[in-house]
Amino acid sequence: MRSDDSPSRRTIGRLAPSPTGGLHLGHARTFLIAWLVARSERGRMILRIEDLDSTRVRDEARRGILDDLRWLGLDWDEGPDIGGDQGPYVQSERLERYAAALDRLRADERVYPCTCTRAEIARAASAPHPEDEGPSYPGTCSGRSAGEARLLGDRSFAWRFRVPEGLLAWDDAVLGPSSGHPRQIGGDFLVARNGVGPSYQLAVVVDDAAMGINQVIRGDDLATSTPRQLLLYQSLGLQPPDFGHVPLAVDPGGRRLAKRDESLKLGALRELGVDPRGLVGALIQTCGWSDGAQPAWPREWIGRVDLVRLRRQPWVVTPEWIEALPHGRP
Ligand code: GLU
Q1: Quick check: is 1 in a domain?
Q2: Where are the beta strands (DSSP E) in 175-248?
Q3: Range of 268's domain?
């Protein structure tokens, strides 16, 4: 899926979970896909914990994520447990990097201080899901320059990115030629809360660029964030990665899997004695990469997958599918 096929460019992919409540089957499938695609290109894999949404982050979940990923047979070359040249690999320990990026956006007048809507500002640390987007920001505070922040005194405010007119396009490895109009999807978006921390959009761009990540494979609920992230790459003079947005897992009613449904969590399946190789084989089948669901470790599928053949429909997770998973030790 490379846009630059020079032999010197090595694929660097990432797994970027948020520790807000244990990985579920949808995460497992997306991470398995991202891992297999990068490993099939002999790429490196980085694990980064996205824990900026401090109100929702659970310590237990942070530890549980690493256990879940290992149980599934995934590994990584850099991450919070093993370190690496581009660490730390936990976002809450990288705040000064986001502050430096914000300084640059401020100096270039790409952002302005906004005193509107507390609820929206509070949500900005998490990746937005399409149903949370709401109407575009009407530009109430856009008349302010970045320098006018000092006139606000003690008032709490957030930094909003001044979105220009125009379409942002990218060649998505799954969706094909894609584009978005950030003025119409959300409008001027939040990049940081003053004195509190960065938004998801800013942190993810700063980190992916700093860690040299050139392949981002993630759920297609984040495709609407990609144009915003492309604007940030442009404004910060950074090279964007190749993006691939994979179809989400949904429940039989067509809804995105809920994080609160315990029966869908990897931790619960593990406790029930589900064989992780059986789960991997069954997930591979849902991707359209095999007819049957033969138990296998992810590494046994390296070099045997590609995004062109990835099933394009959402994956409907049914209780019957979960019940049919093989049990036993691998
Ligand atoms: N940490 C984000 C989430 O779990 C994913 C971010 C990304 O892949 O860009 O929703």
Answers
A1: no
A2: 176-180, 189-193, 197-198, 215-219, 242-246
A3: 12-323
Strands 176-180 and 168-172: antiparallel
CATH at residue 280: 3.40.50.620
Model confidence at 124: pLDDT above 90:
no
Nearest-CA residue for ligand 1 atom 9 is 204
Distance 222 CA to ligand 1 centre (A): 8
Residue-wise pLDDT tens digits, 43-56: 999 999 999 986 66
Closest atom of ligand 1 relative to the 27 alpha carbon = 4
Strand, coil or helix: 305: coil
Distance CA 27, CA 183 (A): 30
In a domain, 283, yes or no: yes
CB-ligand 1 contact for 246 (6 Å cutoff)? no
Local structure of 78: helix, strand or coil: strand
Q: Is residue 4 part of a domain?
A: no
Distance (Å, rounded) from C-alpha 132 to C-alpha 145?
28
- Which class for 292: exposed (0-12), middle (13-18), buried (19 or more C-beta within 10 A)? exposed
DSSP state, residue 262: G
Query: Residue 90 domain-assigned?
Result: yes
Res. 58: pLDDT tops 70: no
Measured CA to CA, the distance from residue 30 to residue 283 in angstroms comes to 10
The number of distinct structural domains making up the chain is 1
CB atoms closer than 10 angstroms to residue 323: 7
* Annotated catalytic residue 265: no
- How far does CA 147 lie from the centroid of its chain? 32
| pLDDT tens figures, 204-245 | 999 999 999 999 999 999 999 999 999 999 999 999 999 999
Max CA distance (Å), the chain: 65
Q: Which of 106, 110, 228, 259 is catalytic?
A: 259
Strands (E), the chain: 12-15, 44-47, 111-114, 158-161, 168-172, 176-180, 189-193, 197-198, 215-219, 242-246, 249-250, 315-316
Torsions phi, psi for 113 (to 5 deg): -80, 135
